[in-house]
């Protein structure tokens, strides 16, 4: 369980080569907003044979769903790469890690589109919704966004939610504003959470998810925000003004008692995605620091010979090994379907803190050079900080862990 198998090493190798050769040279242009990351994501997927493979596998899955609903047996087909990938959650984690070694921002945009938007629709949508929205997002023909946070509803995303969906015959009328949404400025498909308003008090309005698309009348998005880090991941607002969303676009086709739980599940998967991103940051920062400490000479010897530097490297190594173990365990939980929310939240707190600490140590070990863009640890530090804020802040995740352990949640 705690070792990489042959196929895992192959994934690491392929994505490391891609990240170094194709992604790294683009990071500056992405960070400056001169280029968008999406074409490179498509290139990445297509050059690895992914787009067509995912499309086929997903279409087969829909056929199976429909056959099961009709009480028939679907045609048997040999397992393909996409299904193997689903069976082994360590593979997507390794992809996230490899991309995050070079650009956590790029990895985040990729994960938000495919995981939070595409995979969510795939898992909870109707066959028609899967065909129309999930498959194009999962094959990167379209870019997805997952819109929960609002200007006044961050940590209290459900309680303070102001976005409403008023049922009006064969459509819902959506109004509200979402903010800090990854990919929003350029996304084609938006999974938007709103409270269904039938005139009851706000606290009794059920939260439901709706699939919206760019071009719907009344839907608009803001310009990408200027940010401290994750600059190569466009973030922005989504404005909803009397958007008529057909009832067929209600995720899953009918109102659920507790879509709030569905959204919380998605938050769980978002949190599970944080650890592999942190692993990429930690691994890269550690490797760069180890190398630099051996090469950089001060007071007539390599700085690696000073114990203050060795202690920093030892702490980095401890965080690296712990984070690897967490990633292995999260993947195993994904594979077996075991749910342990306290562990998922705690692992998010630990790995995000570790990534920030390790990136700061890397800058310190590199001295003035570490503060310069050229040495890359500067970008990894800026991007790492977001991981303590997104997917539920570290404090909120720590409190959830404590409440679960205390039996209060
Ligand atoms: C770059 C970026 C990308 C993002 N992408 C997405 C996305 O794709 N989709 C999406 O829906 N959202 C996204 N978010 C939003 C993100 O999930 C929120 O920023 C996060 O949930 C925190 O909400 P907030 O910013 O409103 O902070 P607040 O909730 O206002 O929190 C402010 C501070 O108060 C603390 N706090 C709040 N409540 C409590 C409490 N009860 N006890 C103790 N401390 C508390 C918090 O820990 C934090 O330190 C993104 C954010 C960023 C910055």
Short synopsis of the structure:
It is built from 13 helices and nine strands. It has 409 residues and is of the alpha+beta class. Flavin-adenine dinucleotide binds next to strand 1, strand 3 and helix 13.
Question: Distance between the terminal alpha carbons, to the nearest Å?
Answer: 30 Å
**Arithmetic mean of pLDDT:** 93
Helix/strand order, N-terminal first: HHHHHHHHEEEEEEEHEEHHHH
Task: Quickly count the domains.
Answer: 3
Instruction: Examine the coordinates and then state which fold CATH places here, giving the name of the CATH topology of the largest domain.
Output: Butyryl-CoA Dehydrogenase, subunit A, domain 3
Bound small-molecule species: flavin-adenine dinucleotide
Secondary structural class: alpha+beta
Name given to the CATH architecture of the largest domain = Up-down Bundle
How much of the sequence is in beta strands?
5-15%
- Strand tally, please? 9
- Main sheet record: 7 strands, mixed
Please provide a written account of the structure:
With 409 residues, this protein is an alpha+beta fold. The chain folds into 3 domains: 6-142, Orthogonal Bundle (Butyryl-Coa Dehydrogenase, subunit A, domain 1); 146-258, Butyryl-CoA Dehydrogenase, subunit A, domain 2 (Beta Barrel); 260-405, Butyryl-CoA Dehydrogenase, subunit A, domain 3 (Up-down Bundle). Helix content is 55%, strand content 13%. Helix 11 (341-370) runs antiparallel to helix 12 (377-386). The longest helix has 37 residues, at 259-295. The protein is globular and about 80 Å long. The mean pLDDT is 93. Bound molecules: flavin-adenine dinucleotide. Flavin-adenine dinucleotide binds at residues 112, 146-149, 154-155, 180-182, 227, 230, 235, 386, 389-390, 392-393, 395-396, 399. Residues 112, 146-149, 154-155, 180-182, 227, 230, 235, 386, 389-390, 392-393, 395-396, 399 line the site of flavin-adenine dinucleotide.
């Amino acid at each position: 369980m705690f070792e990489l198998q042959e196929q895992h090493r192959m994934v690491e190798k392929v994505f490391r080569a891609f990240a170094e050769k194709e992604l790294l040279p683009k990071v500056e242009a992405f960070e400056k907003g001169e280029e968008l990351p999406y074409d490179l994501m498509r290139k990445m997927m297509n050059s690895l044979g992914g787009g067509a493979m995912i499309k086929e596998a997903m279409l087969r899955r829909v056929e199976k769903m429909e056959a099961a609903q009709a009480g028939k047996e679907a045609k048997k087909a040999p397992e393909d790469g996409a299904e193997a990938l689903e069976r082994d959650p360590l593979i997507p984690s390794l992809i996230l890690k490899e991309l995050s070694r070079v650009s956590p921002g790029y990895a985040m945009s990729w994960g938000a589109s495919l995981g939070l938007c595409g995979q969510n629709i795939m898992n909870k949508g109707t066959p028609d919704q899967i065909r129309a929205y999930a498959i194009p997002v999962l094959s990167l023909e379209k870019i997805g966004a997952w819109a929960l946070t609002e200007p006044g509803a961050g940590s209290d995303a459900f309680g303070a939610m102001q976005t409403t969906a008023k049922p009006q015959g064969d459509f819902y009328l959506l109004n509200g504003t979402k903010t800090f949404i990854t990919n929003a400025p350029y996304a084609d498909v938006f999974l938007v959470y709103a409270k269904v308003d039938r005139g009851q008090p706000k606290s009794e309005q059920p939260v439901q998810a709706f699939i919206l698309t760019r071009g719907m009348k009344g839907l608009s998005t803001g310009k990408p925000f200027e940010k401290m880090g994750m600059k190569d991941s466009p973030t922005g607002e989504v404005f909803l003004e009397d958007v008529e969303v057909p009832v067929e676009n209600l995720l899953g086709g009918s109102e659920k008692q507790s879509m709030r739980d569905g959204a919380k599940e998605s938050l769980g998967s978002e949190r599970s995605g944080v650890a592999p991103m942190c692993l990429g940051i930690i691994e890269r920062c550690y490797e760069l620091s180890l190398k630099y400490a051996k090469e950089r000479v001060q007071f007539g010897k390599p700085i690696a010979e000073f114990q203050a530097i060795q202690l920093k490297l030892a702490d980095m190594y401890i965080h690296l090994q712990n984070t690897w173990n967490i990633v292995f365990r999260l993947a195993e939980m994904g594979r077996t379907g075991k749910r342990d929310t306290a562990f998922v939240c705690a692992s998010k707190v630990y790995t995000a803190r570790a990534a920030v600490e390790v990136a700061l140590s890397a800058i310190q070990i590199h001295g003035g050079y570490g503060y310069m863009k050229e040495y890359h640890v500067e970008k990894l530090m800026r991007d790492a900080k977001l991981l303590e804020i997104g997917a539920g802040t570290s404090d909120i995740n720590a409190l959830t862990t404590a409440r679960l352990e205390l039996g209060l949640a």
